[in-house]
Amino acid sequence: MGIIANLFTWWNGASLGTTLFTSRHGNKVGTDAAGNAYFQHGKDPKRRWVIYEGSNDSSRVPPEWNAWLRGTVDEVPDQSMPPRRPFQKEPLPNMTGTLSAYRPGGSLGGAGKRPAATGDYEAWKPE
Q1: How many whole angstroms separate alpha carbon 77 and alpha carbon 60?
Q2: Residue 8 C-beta-side C-alpha neighbours within 13 Å
Q3: Cβ 98 vs Cβ 55: under 8 Å
Q4: What is the Cα–Cα distance from 94 to 107, expressed in whole angstroms?
């Protein structure tokens, strides 16, 4: 994406305004595995933001960086978080609207049929 494309768009990377603000006031504190860059304001360390690598989708921010962005932890995740345990899965982005989205068995998009009623439901009847 060139600067001209970022002049009017924000959904696939930083806009021109965000890029200028970041270059003047932001201190880069780290990058996650997806390539998202994290910044902190030079004068006010409580102001934090992310510039996404690719589309702007907050579900692509890993949990440890999300905690840092929200101020739950003060130190950047590389310094404050314990290493990932072997049983922990890698975080996934929001899969809604894709073929990988969760579809329970009884839903219209899910496989199989809806389970039969068990008889514990009684329809409301006006008196």
Answers
A1: 16
A2: 2
A3: no
A4: 19
